[in-house]
Structure formats: structure tokens, C-alpha cells
């Protein structure tokens, strides 16, 4: 079973020596994506704006892998503040109107460049 590293210029490059995503075993494992554009600039001041940017990054990476958000089976979100949960969930529901993936959440231990959220996804290839 081959492991294929996925890379696109339509999402931020990794900050610390990890792949944007890896395809293996019929799945695509997307690394946690923060609310940064392809140049590394922070996008959005609100949790909704930042959540949307995370999903734009994930969507671009999944497309580069030959997949899509519709094929997402699991997601992990990490918030900086518990009080942002409702706003994150509001934006989440815009991206997953039907058949959302399983998910789990946690608290962000660090907050580089003012990010409020990070989201990782596993999708069918």
C-alpha cells in the first residue's frame, strides 16, 4: 500500500515539517489547518471567518488529493476558547449541510499568529 504526500499551492505550506495531507489505505489524512491563506497570512477576526478559512484550505487540499469535503468521514477541531464553540458550530453547519463527518474537539494549547481554530480531516480518497 503506497503512501502519497499531497501538496497544493492553494493552501498554506506547513510551518514545521509535516505534509499538508497524506493519502494511504484509501483515505486522505489532512493535517490540522489554521485560518491562514496560501501566503501564510491570518484570515478573519471572528471564529466564523477563521473556521471558513480552515475549510477553504481543507477543501483545496482534498481537491489536490482527488477527494472532497463530501467524502469526509472524521474531523477534529481545536479551539482557542470554549466560548467560540457556538460560532464555530454555526459555520461548520454551512459546510456540512447533510451527512456530516464524525468529529471531536479539544482546546488549542498554543495560538500562533492569533488563530482561534485548527481543523484536521480524514476523508475517503
Notes on the structure:
With 125 residues, the chain is of the alpha+beta class. The protein has one domain: RutC-like (60s Ribosomal Protein L30, Chain: A), CATH 3.30.1330. Helix content is 23%, strand content 29%. The chain has a 6-stranded mixed beta sheet with strand order 1-2-3-6-4-5, with helices on one face. The longest helix has 18 residues. The chain is globular and about 40 Å long. It starts with a strand and ends with a strand.
Q: Which whole number gives the mean pLDDT?
A: 95
Quaternary structure of the protein? single chain
CATH topology: 60s Ribosomal Protein L30, Chain: A
Query: What fraction, in percent, of the residue positions are helical?
Result: 10-25%
Shape: globular
Number of strands: 6
CATH secondary-structure class: Alpha Beta
Distance between the termini: 13 Å
| Beta fraction | 25-35%
Amino acid at each position: 500500500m503506497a503512501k502519497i504526500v499531497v501538496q497544493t499551492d492553494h493552501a498554506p505550506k506547513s510551518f514545521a515539517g509535516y505534509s499538508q495531507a497524506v493519502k494511504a489505505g484509501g483515505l486522505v489524512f489532512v493535517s490540522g489547518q489554521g485560518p491562514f491563506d496560501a501566503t501564510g497570512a491570518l484570515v478573519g477576526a471572528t471564529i466564523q471567518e477563521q473556521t471558513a478559512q480552515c475549510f477553504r484550505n481543507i477543501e483545496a487540499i482534498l481537491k489536490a488529493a482527488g477527494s472532497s469535503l463530501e467524502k469526509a468521514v472524521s474531523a477534529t477541531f481545536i479551539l482557542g476558547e470554549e466560548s467560540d464553540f457556538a460560532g464555530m458550530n454555526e459555520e461548520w453547519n454551512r459546510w456540512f449541510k447533510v451527512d456530516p463527518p464524525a468529529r471531536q474537539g479539544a482546546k488549542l494549547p498554543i495560538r500562533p499568529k492569533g488563530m482561534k481554530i485548527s481543523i484536521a480531516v480524514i476523508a475517503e480518497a
